[in-house]
TrEMBL record:
Protein name per its UniProtKB record: Major facilitator superfamily domain containing 13a-like
Major location (coarse): membrane
Record-annotated membrane-spanning stretches: 20-42, 100-120, 132-157, 169-191, 197-220, 262-282, 302-319, 331-349, 355-383, 449-469
Membrane association type: Multi-pass membrane protein
Keywords in alphabetical order: Membrane, Transmembrane, Transmembrane helix
InterPro entries: MFS_trans_sf, TMEM180
Origin species: Sparus aurata (Gilthead sea bream)
Top-level taxonomy: Eukaryota, Metazoa, Chordata, Craniata, Vertebrata
Amino acid sequence: MEEKPAAGVRYSRMNVGRHLLYFGINPAAFAFAMTTLGAGMINNIFSFYYVKLFINNYKVSEGAFQQSQVVYMVWNAVNDPLFGYLQDNSKMPCCSQRRLSILYGAPLYSLTFLLAWFPWRAYAPGDLLSGLHLMVALCAFDGMLTFVLLAQCALFAEISSHHQSRLRLIKYNQVASLVGSSSILFCGVLSRNMEDFAAFQAFTVLIAVLSCGCMIYTGFHSESRYDNKDAACSVGGTPDQSAVSFSTLRTLMWQILTQRDFQLFVVMNFFQVFMLAFFNNFTMIFTEHLIPPDVLPSLAKSIMYGAGFICPQLLVLTCQNLLHGLGYYKIILFTFYLEAGMAVIMLALGPQHYYILAFFLTVNMILIQATFSLFGLPLADIIDTDLQKYKRSSPLSSMVFGTNALFTKPGQSLAPMLALNILNQFGYEQLKDAGKDANLSDLESLHSVMFYLVCLVPLVIAAMQALAWTPFSIRNSHTVDIKYVDG
């Protein structure tokens, strides 16, 4: 009796696959990319709007904001390796099978996205409940994001070990991300950059439903090469290791952490996550303060914000030939040099060149996100190397992605914490709503600090990333058609 549903699902996949092939669409890549589409719709909105919402609308105090970020930082870092270990070692199909993790996690993931946008009551300035609301919203959303996207990251490494197949996944991923990123543009236009809060809330509900549907499609139609592996076989090849234990977790993590290429990647990726959070959380705030409304009206700013999330995918799609020819190593290194160079030029020009500043902010968002979109390739190569080195029966895909996140995810909290702390030292908390009543001297001082943050943060971080990335040794995977035989 249990075989019938499985057979029905297989028949459905084959039927859908035939229709997609008829239109020249790869079914495996399409199914994989649907989670990117769904996650992109909600992740971009969450990361772009939650800081401004809680600081400006809910009036959360700096103390409560920082406390929430600390709790979030700890939870954000710890849940990734734990979920990664669970997904790589659990005997429960909902955890061990990548597509089922996405299928069952998608509804909860979309629901937790909605937590932030509906206040628990009318908040007074400094209300303790608004701080608790922020903490719960951050931790719940990140927990489900981790569970679903770790499974998808593992799929990236496990659908195929062919470099060309992975580039095809990247290509489909970028198209899906391009469509998903448009949620920022539509959200900004329909809600007038959150000024019409009721419209904003309605839009988030619609996006949550669409996002859930996209990820459920992946849950039904995607498949890993290792989904049907023998449950008795562990990642190390012996039955004893399949038991979930602290000693096994420690051994596997040590094997991952002692890889030099993994160490170099983690250092570089930490700074990338920091930069991504810095620009996602504060671009809107910097733009509103540094660029007058008569220079860039609200619609133009909405288009600018939308471009910052849409154009990275276009950039990656147009660079497919470069990825084939040069490989990801040289392209990533070049972007670090480019970011540092642009920051030096902007610093030399000064803050009065408003259009150049708007261009600089937008291009930075594009480059940082586009580069980050390529990071699955080096991680997949690290997973392949680990699989071959330790002769595992199946790869530690979720654990490698999860262990990477253990060290890089804190950047998501540190960026808003440090930036807000610096801004508040120059009166941002008092001046953000002062408008025309603000003291001009204090406002000029705040704007000066904002401008230096906009220039110096990418300059310093890009330099450190270049230093960390230069010794990375897996540089030529794009020249090898088949590194390992798909099993």
